[in-house]
Write a structure and sequence with these properties.
single chain; mainly alpha; two-stranded antiparallel ribbon; 10 helices; about 60% helix
């Protein structure tokens, strides 16, 4: 993985859109068709843009769950609130690029907007990735699956976050 992967992601909203496509797709698969709400992406940004977190979760089994990751590496949640706030603008840009490009469909509804991954796979030109990007995509898939299994209130309590 590149030592500057956080900087690469922050400055590349198209890459962030692809990562969020995977998070959304996995969330929908494990969440019985539900689309993730905006706060899941903000939390995801705070985790995906953090190399220590990606190094841990990219290798874990989908069935392991978020609590297992946190118990193995408590530093995942140390500073997460600040990282989430710091990377929120980059996350919003990535969602905007994803929606404008047709990768992600913004949906309305009660409360926060939701974002649904369009299609069953990314376009061919966006599928090829280097090893570091593949790690982030795998991390996003796991986060999507884990986020889908928890309600937003429960997730925020587990991660000690405030919205």
């Amino acid at each position: 993985m590149r030592p500057d992967h956080e900087e690469v992601l922050l400055r590349n909203p198209a890459l962030g859109a692809c990562i969020f496509w995977h998070l959304s797709r996995s969330f929908s698969e494990f969440g019985r068709g539900r689309a993730p709400e905006l706060p899941y992406f903000l939390v995801g940004a705070g985790m995906i843009f953090h190399q220590v977190t990606i190094d841990k979760i990219r290798r874990m089994q989908f069935e392991s769950g978020l609590l297992k990751a946190i118990s193995d590496r408590p530093d995942i949640i140390a500073g997460l609130q600040g990282r989430m706030e710091e990377h929120s603008l980059g996350a919003l840009r990535a969602l905007q690029v994803g929606a404008a490009s047709g990768l992600i469909q913004r949906e309305g509804g009660d409360g926060f907007p939701t974002f649904r991954a369009e299609g069953s796979d990314l376009p061919r030109a966006l599928r090829d990735a280097t090893a570091g990007v593949t790690d982030m995509l795998n991390g996003a898939k796991r986060l999507g699956a884990w986020f889908a299994s928890e309600g937003m209130d429960v997730l925020f309590k587990q991660l000690n976050l405030e919205l």
